[in-house]
Design brief:
Helix 3 runs parallel beside helix 10 and helix 4 crosses helix 10. With 281 residues, the protein is mainly α. Helices cover 64% and strands 0% of the residues.
């Protein structure tokens, strides 16, 4: 029984010893940047980090760079948020008509086939008034990937480790030691909820929406202070945008819809009056 042993091939192994600076690793090769684990949102974190470092090259302070980049991001998505607020305003204006449709089918069970007709009437109303109920949620959904991306950026990027902002914030990757920015962030989010147009949600949902700022405040107490700064600036920007949008589109023109029985009675009474007037003439 014979064996043949091939000589061992020479393989080149590469090692890197040093901080995981993205630009340094990128200079070595594209594969070297994989040493930094940005998580599932790496596709957002990488351009975000490059943009942040580009701004910081002119500003020289990562705290102010986060603020400037946040303003730039909000300017880019300004049209989308404006369209969302306009759609929510339209939803607010047609709420009496929506409620009138819901009242007509309120006695039907959720499994009743007649409920399908109610949904058809609602969709027809939305189409007639040019309203998209989902458009009010889109900007909110778009912000969540940015939150996770900023969190991964501040928690992973070596460039922001120990990066000071001003005052008591000496490390943007660590939480605010006095919890000032998370509390201000929660207060700004509460103010933002008050400025948003009401779209006829039930009281339970309204209470839930008002509870969200409290929940976010507790979530951000131990989050990186840079993330709280980003969210605070974004909230303040949205509050200002809300007031600007409200001044552009004006106050809501809310219509009052009479009950169906009252409308029928008025039509019947109007018919008798017209007939009597015709006999007199």
């Amino acid at each position: 029984m014979s064996f043949s042993i091939e000589p061992k091939k020479n393989e080149t192994l590469q090692f890197f010893a040093g901080p995981k600076d993205f630009d340094v690793l990128a200079a070595i090769g594209p594969d070297a940047t994989r040493a930094i684990n940005f998580g599932m949102f790496a596709v957002i974190v990488v351009p975000l980090l490059k943009s942040l470092k580009w701004v910081n090259a002119y500003v020289g302070n990562y705290g102010w760079s986060i603020i400037i980049l946040t303003v730039i991001i909000n300017i880019v998505i300004f049209p989308l948020r404006h369209k969302s607020v306009v759609s929510m305003r339209k939803m607010q204006e047609i709420q009496p008509e929506v409620k009138a449709i819901q009242d007509r089918y309120s006695k039907l069970k959720a499994t009743d086939p007649g409920k399908q007709k109610m949904n058809q009437e609602m969709m027809a109303l939305y189409k007639e008034r040019g309203v998209n109920p989902a458009s009010g949620c889109v900007p909110i959904l778009l912000t969540f990937p940015l939150i996770f991306a900023f969190y991964a950026l501040l928690s992973t990027a070596i460039e922001l480790r120990g990066a000071p902002f001003m005052g008591w914030i000496h490390d943007l990757s660590a939480h605010d030691p006095y919890y000032v920015t998370p509390i201000l962030m929660g207060a700004s989010q509460l103010w933002q909820q008050w400025t948003m147009p009401s779209t006829g949600v039930d009281p339970a949902q309204q209470k839930m929406m008002m509870f969200m700022p409290v929940m976010f405040t507790f979530m951000f107490l131990w989050a990186p202070s840079g993330l709280a700064i980003y969210w605070l600036v974004s909230n303040v920007w949205q509050i200002g945008q809300q007031y600007v949008t409200n001044s552009i589109i004006g106050p809501p023109a809310v219509r009052t819809i009479r009950p169906a029985a009252e409308r029928r009675l008025k039509r019947v009474g109007g018919g008798k009056t017209e007939a009597a007037d015709a006999q007199k003439s």
